[in-house]
What we know:
By secondary structure, the protein is mostly helical. Helix content is 81%, strand content 0%. It has 17 helices and no strands.
Amino acid sequence: MSVRNLVFSRRFGAVFACITLSAFNDNYFKNALIILLTYELATKMGVDIAVLISIAAAFFILPFFFCSGFAGELADAMPKHQLVRILKVTEAILMVAAAGALLIEQTWALLAILFLIGVQAAFFGPTKYAILPQLLAREELLLGNGLVEGGTFMSILLGTLLGGVLILQPNGVLIVAVSLILVSFFGVYAAWQVPVTETANPGMKVNYNIFQSTWRMVLHAFENLRLRMPILGISWFWAIGATYLTQLPVFTKEVIGGNEMVVTLFNGVFTVGVALGSFLCPYVVHRFHARDLSPLALAGVLLFGLDLCWVGYHISLLPAEALVGMGTFLRASFNHIRITADLFFMAFCGGIFIVPLYTQLQTQSNAVERARTIASNNVVNALFISLASVVASILYAQKLSVLHVLLLFTLCNIPVIALLRRLTHGKPPVID
């Protein structure tokens, strides 16, 4: 099936709209909040910018660690289309609350709502990936996952760009608040267009002890040797990607001397790179041996990440009385363009890296426990991202600069590449 036919088919198009609208709204709100924290609220509170941003990142990601186990069991125990509808209504309620907190600029209320949005996203994650094999044929999964990943990151791009551009403009807070509500209502409508699906495991009893269910679920997933590699690979992608995205505002302000428009540029370039890599991955897969693709793509992440750090170490703050904007930054020198290109190609390689791993996770998991398998993946993702955030905070506490932090995380790709080569040698991923 062609891309156009698949996107506009009801069996895929409705859930695709739910996924992309959620990605847009989550990142629209999150990036608007980060920009507010970086350029206004942190100063008002007298709190270090890097620390406050790390707190915000932890508030969003911790629910994935605590809630994913229960979310996976729930998604296997009830029809997934019903769960999609419940979660989209929940999202709409949270966005109304987020809009109100933005209008009154209550920092801790905004962080609390960010946490609750993380809870909603933690429940939506297993459902959105586990429902795809019920709606698509096996041979359509690679294309479907490529579209989902690409569409998700394009939505992240739009949310990131618009959130960063609008929030500090005159009446920007009001515009962001109103649009958060409108987009969530469109998501509710899309949820009611998702085709009816059967319950994967109707006789399953849900364990309401979230800690016990999460622990047992992750252990069970890791018993399957074919699931370990994709789970660990996906988790590393999110750890390194989240680290870069979280630290970009600090990098932009302290290393480049750029304002929020330069942060928005960097976020946009990074997310476009991942989206294009994801879109093109189904075509790249057929030109390379499957077992070599993941380590090769991650090697690209390593090389472009090293170049970004190298240029960052040798670049000078732009001479200006105030932080410079996007136009001044892009005209400043070739090295400023080079940093932008490094971000793009690093993200592009990441997009190619991630899609086959998600496809392998879906095809190698048992249908009656697929949502729990994906939830296990989300738990490990959250653990990796949380550990990365903790490590970054510790490094900052030791007076290391943002460039030191990014360089250390980039170098950590070397042992991961070696491990992927070992795990995939002679065991090509299933990417029908």
